[in-house]
Structure formats: C-alpha cells, structure tokens
C-alpha cells in the first residue's frame, strides 16, 4: 500500500503535527493557554497582529529574486492547503465526539431520573424508621434504668454463686483428676477471695479452697515423684506446681532427675538390642530399625525434655548450663551405643541400609541443634557419621583385597586343573600350559573384568554417602576430604597398590624352582600389571574423580606414580617368570649331564631324549607367552641358520691337529686361543631384564638354560664318544632354538662355548664329522 492511501486521521505523528500548527496559529502553549509574550509590532511579521500585506509584498519584491518569490509562493500555498486540510480533519473528529457526548448525556439523564426516584423512596423509609424508634424509646424510657440495675444484680449473683460453689467444683476436679482445670478455676477466683478475705463468708471459702489446693499440690508432687508418667505428663505436673507457687529450683532438679530416669530406660532398651539374650543372629534388628527406635524413643524424648524445660524454667538461673550438662551426658551414652551398633555392620553387601540409617540419625539430631543452640550434640553426631563412613571405606578396601585374592585362587585352580590330566609330566613343569593354552587370555580377561566390575560396584555403594538427598552429604568433609582422601586415596589408590604389592610377593616367596606359584600365573599377573599401567589405572582414577567430583585440595597420589609402580611390578613378575622357566629347563639339562658317564659312553646314534624334551618345552613356553604378549623385534636371520657349523668345531679340529704334539704346554695354547676368541665375542648378560614381548622373554629363558648347560659341561670329563654326543645334542638344539630368540648369534655363541668346553675337557678329542651329525639330527 502506498503512502497516499493512508488516512490522515490514523497517523499519530501527523495528528500531533497538525495540533502543533493550530496551537502555533492560535498562539497557545502545551497547556492550551496563550503564552505571555510581548506583542510584535513588526508589520512584516506574518504571524503578528499588526501584519500589513502590502508592506510584506513590497519587502519581498524588493529583497528577493524572481526564483525566491516563486519558491515563497509555492511554500505559502502548500502551508495554506495543509492548514485547510487539518482544519477539515479537526472538524470531522470533533463532530464525532460531539455526537458521542450528546448520546452519553441523554443516557445519563435517564439514569439519574431513575436514581432520584429510588432516593425519594429511601428517604421516606428512613423517616418512618426514625419515627418508630422515637416512639419505642419514649415507651421504654421509664423501665430502662430498672432493667440495667437488674442486669447488674444478676451478674453479681452469678459471681457470688461461682464463689460459693468453688470448693465443690475444686473437689469434683480433684476426684476426676482434672488438675489443670482445678488450677485454672482457682486462679480465676484467687484475687477476689484475697480482696474480700476480711469478710467471714469469703474467709471460709478461701480457707476451704486453700485446703483443697494443698491436697491437689500433694497429689501432683506424688505423681511427679512416681515418675511413671510420660514426659508430657511430667511437664504438665511441673507447670501446675509452678502455678501453685512451688520453688522453681527444687522442681528443676526433680524434673531433670525424672527425665534422666526415663531416658536411661530408653538407652537400656537400645543396649539390650545390641546384646540380645539369644545368641542367634536373627535376634538382632537391622541398623535402620535400631536407629529408628533410638530416634523415635530417646531423641524424641530428649527434644521434648529440652522444650519443656525451656518453657517451664525459662526465667530460672543457670538454666542453660544445667540443661547443656544434662543433654551432653545422656547424648554421649547414646552415641556410644550407636557406634557399637555401627561397628557390628561388617557385611558390605548392601550399603544403602547403613547410609539411610546414618542419614536419619544425622537428620534427627538437627532438631536438638534448633532447640538448644550452642549444643555440641549435632557436631558429635556428625563425627560419628564421618567415622562410620571412614570405617566403611576400610571395609570395602578389605573386601576388594579379599575378592582379588579369591580371584587369584580361582585362576590358580583353573591353571592347575589341566596339569592333573597331563601324564608323565611334572606338576610344576613348563609344559603344564600345553593342554589349555587358549585359556590364558580368557583367564586374563575374566580376571581384569571381574576386578573392574567389583571396583565399580564398590564405588557405587560408597557414592551413596555423597548423594544429594542425604543430609550430611553437604558437610565440608563429604564434599572434600571424604572424596579425595577417603575414596580416592584410601580405597582406590590403596587397592591398586595392593594389587602391585601382592603380585610382587609371588616373586619374593617363590623358590628357585618356582615354589608353589605356577609360572603361567606369573606371566598372567605380569600382563595384568602391564595393562593396569597402560590404561586401567587412568580409567579407574578418572571414573572416581568424575563420580565423586574430587577436588584435589590436599596432596593425592599422581597417576604417573601408580603407573610406574604397576610397570615395576609387571617387570619384576616377567623377569621372575623367565628365571623360573629357565631354571626348570636348566634342571633337566643339569640332571642329564650329571647322571651320565661321558667317558665310557657308546658312540652316538640318536639325539638324547632330554634334548627333544627341552625343545618341546621351549615350544610350549613360546606358545604360552605368545598368548599374552606381542611377538617383538628380531634381527634378520641367515638363510642357513638351522644348518650352521659351529666355530668351535674348527676349534676342536685345531685340537685334533695339535693332538700329535700334545704336551703339557699344549693346553696353554688351546686356552689362549679360546680366550682370544672370547675377547672378540659380545658379552652376554644372562639374568638381565627382559622386555614386554615374546622374543625377549624366550631369549632370556634360552640364555639361562644354555648357560646352565655350559657350566655343567665344564665340570665333567668327556671321552671321544661323549664329545660327539655333545656335538649331536648341540646341533639338534641349534636346529630349533635359533627361531625363538631375537639374535641367532647368541644361540650360536653359547652352543659354540658348550662344544668347545666339552672338547677342552675331552681325553680323546676326536670330533664327529658334520655330515654325520646332520644325518643323526635329521633322523632324530
């Protein structure tokens, strides 16, 4: 829609502008009044009263050019048209308003006419009422004074009747044991009887009432001394005795004494639940029922005693001190019973019952804080809750440790089960894992998952202490120290350290032959600790920090420290595994060397069975380690590694060459050659730490085995055929062992040393031809 189609009356800006121009034209201000300004005497002022058109036109013709005159004319015509249009608009708007005002006045005239009729009727009615009222007042004027006098006499007689019937009323209340009503009734009449006690009749009523009230006070004292009533009844008795002007100090002491006896009976009931007469566990109530009973009986009664004491003895001196001592003494005994009952909660199955009980215990004690400001009872209750939570964390740590040890026992049983079915093998032999090698990853996965799930379950149970609907969770301890030191450090970190320490103990307690610890368990635990170092520890601590919103205000154990400890445990376990497996194979080799007569042995025709067993066991260990660790890095192998000729064979041949001239100085030459050969060989560290891969582990085991074989050979004396048997055995080992190690030269060097030592210890060093050795080994 274009601008020209918009009605003028609907534009508020235009309307204000029009009104402004009209006010300007009529010389009015914003309030509709003409401003007090001096009149302009200029005849050329077009807005002034002395405006002269002729003079104005002459001035314009004289001062303006033709173009300016035409512009002035155009502007003036536009203003005249605008004023005419605005005038028409105002007339139209005011016309509508005048019509509307006329209709409104006509309607108001009709309404006022009806109202005038109603007002006339109301005025007539009021006049009639006034006439009737005046007539009635005139009629009763003579009897009004008499009626007022009789009413006063009636009221006085009723009061006298109440006084004369007062002794009977008090006796009736005494019979019905309505002591409060009797005291209130006597208090209403006591001032009147005291005022008119000089009259004989009132004196007699007063004496009778005093006698009755003395009897009532005596009954109240007796009821108070009996103490068999509830705390509420005792409070009523004390209140009535105070109204009867009994000494406040004496009543205060008696009130606290009776309240103590009742509260002590509640404590005895709670103690009976802790030490039931029957030893059956079913006779004990659960912790929530115990706390409920203590809160509903003891704490409620204690709060009632505090309230009653403050209401009754509010003006009594030493009120606060006596009450604080009284409350603190009984609360201390109650707290002792609560702590004893909490200590009986040893099971860690369902933690919600204990948390709900502690929450209810803490919540009810807040009533004592409101009734008795400054009391130490709520703070001591909070300390009990904190100690209970701390003790609960210790119990959960112990439960986690027991679960871990039980899990290890299950793993050991699973590892030991297939051993029993292996015929002809040692229970502690390295071949024990051959029947069920695939179970190792499953056992590791099951063990790791079960431990992690148990940790999550424990964290969920402990998290109940910090739930939002628990009243004590907003305490500073549970927002800070409990989360960081209690849960993170004392529970999670302590358990991780326990796992590492208990794993290291398998290395310390096992003997040289592995003791009672299966080698597979050492391998599995080393992998478990390594997994903890790489991922599990970070995951558990992150989960704990997120779940408990741990804020590290106090020093905590860094993740890197725990990871380093786990890696150290994994390294120690793996080193010990290598040592145990190496010593097991070494034991077989040692027995095979020590139990044979190497001087008088027959010419070798086969590889000895023990060498075949060594290769089989080494293969089994290789498979076992490969189930849990990666392959590792090997050096490049030569194409004829399995058919390599030992360098020591040439040494043996050198000894044969020099056999014709074998003199006492010949051994010196042979030793010199051997030592020179060793100088140019790389030093081998037998018991060095291994890396976390299969090749490194197998290299360590083979080094220990061959080194033991070498030392046993050095202690024996060999004949010709004994040396040849060593040659055959070493060549057979060379055919298979090179593929297990990271560097085949290590196997070559050790086997060279073994054959060289045998040749050095041989009485008739005549080595077997290499082709014959290969035929025997391939046939074997």
TrEMBL record:
One of its GO terms (cellular component) is cytosol. It comes from the Eukaryota. Residues 46-270 form the Exocyst complex component EXOC2/Sec5 N-terminal domain. The keyword Protein transport applies. GO terms for biological process: endocytic recycling; Golgi organization; Golgi vesicle transport; lipid transport; lysosomal transport; protein transport; retrograde transport, endosome to Golgi. It is found in: Golgi apparatus, trans-Golgi network; Recycling endosome. Keywords: Coiled coil, Endosome, Golgi apparatus, Lipid transport, Protein transport, Transport. Its main location: Golgi. PANTHER family: VACUOLAR PROTEIN SORTING-ASSOCIATED PROTEIN 51 HOMOLOG. Component of the Golgi-associated retrograde protein (GARP) complex. Component of the endosome-associated retrograde protein (EARP) complex. Belongs to the VPS51 family. Involved in retrograde transport from early and late endosomes to the late Golgi. The GARP complex is required for the maintenance of protein retrieval from endosomes to the TGN, acid hydrolase sorting, lysosome function, endosomal cholesterol traffic and autophagy. Acts as component of the EARP complex that is involved in endocytic recycling. This is Vacuolar protein sorting-associated protein 51 homolog. The gene is VPS51.
